[in-house]
Amino acid sequence: MDAAQDRLDLLTDRFYDAAVGVCGWDAALRDLTEAFGAAFAAFGIVGLRSPGRILHTGIDPILVERYLLRHAGRNELAQRTEHLPTGSVITDASLMPKPEFRRTGFYQDCLQPLGLDSLMNLRAVRHANGLAANVCLFRTMQQGEFGVEDVAAYERLAPHICRAVALHLRVAEAEGERRALVGALEILPRAALLVDGAMRVLRTNQAGAALLTARDGLQTDRDGGVLRARQAEETAALRRLVVAAVAGPGATPITEATEHLCLSRPPPPRPPLIVAVLPLGAAGASSMGLPPEAAALLLVTDPAQRRDPPSLPLLREAFGLTRAEAEVAARAGQGEEVARIAEALGITPGTTRLHLHRVFEKTGVHRQAELALVLARLQR
Fold first, then answer.
1. pTM of the entire structure?
2. Is 52 helix (H, G, I), strand (E, B) or coil?
């Protein structure tokens, strides 16, 4: 294997490492810059109506900001490559004569101040929403133009960079979903606990953590963090509900799988805690950005502190629900199962399920646990 191929193999590994966070993108871009005898490299995500963002090595941040504000997705080169397919490699010389390139506002505002005179760009990702990810190399006049051999080498590397960039974007999206979930859990009006099939607590919101610390009807073992109630029989009943939740989504419609349990509390005498067990399943956990082992979401209500659900007018306006759908959504978001909702509203379980499926469609969720998180955001 020749030295050039060895260099490309090392670059490939570096980009995959950057995609999953083993190293920073700056390190990958520095190696790319050195391999192609360039002055700078930049990884940008831009669009016609989006300011975008740029990861770069060595470029003046002021010029990067100027590019994002004035030229990202709108400069002369971007307009000529708007429909460039993923994996394409172009140079400025392949798009326009050099004198024309040097007259562009992009060149004069962003490249000339750094002494840059040529570029070679890879279209790494193109989304249907118009956003494009590019990995671009820049050279000074002294370093010379990017030639046929440079383009050929970059084209050999391109499939790997495209995959690495796409992986990076998916990882970033998953992390964003995880953070959104954590935020949604925190604003739930009651204690929330994510547990696995063995009742180990994986995550709680602040109210849930406070409940466990107070040992007020629910607590965890000191060793494995396994959830248990105050009474052994209550712990056994809760375990049965969680075990049923693990199998429930595969065998029972999610709208019928929610169960409740009342848990006694230590003196002085107070109303029992009401625990709603909402099944997630592996697919549900994945879709919500949760750990794959998450099996159920436990929503714990203290009747003395229970907050009202979002108002029906707010639900109707926010999601375009009918009054009947809003009534069902408000109760389902509090963890009530179909039978109880139907009884409270004086309708049949079948009608209740129909309304709930329409609520799912209009709120963009698929499970009652997800609906609880969405409605919690309206209760700030």
1. 0.53
2. strand
| All structural domains of the chain | 3-178 (3.30.450.40), 187-306 (3.30.450.20), 308-380 (1.10.10.10)
Element (H, E) at 360: helix 349-363
The per-residue b/e assignment along 331-356, b for 16 or more CB within 10 angstroms, e otherwise, is bbbbbbbbebbbeeeebebeebbbbb
Mean pLDDT of 305-331: 83
Query: What percent of the chain stands above pLDDT 90?
Result: 27
What's the whole-number mean pLDDT along residues 339-352?
91
Are 121 and 135 in contact by the 8 Å Cβ rule? The answer is yes
Q: Which residues of 17-27 are buried (b: 16+ CB within 10 A; e: fewer)?
A: bbbeeebebee
DSSP symbols for 109-144: IIIGGGTEEEEEEEEEEE-TTS-EEEEEEEEETTT-
Q: What is the mean pLDDT of residues 63-86?
A: 78
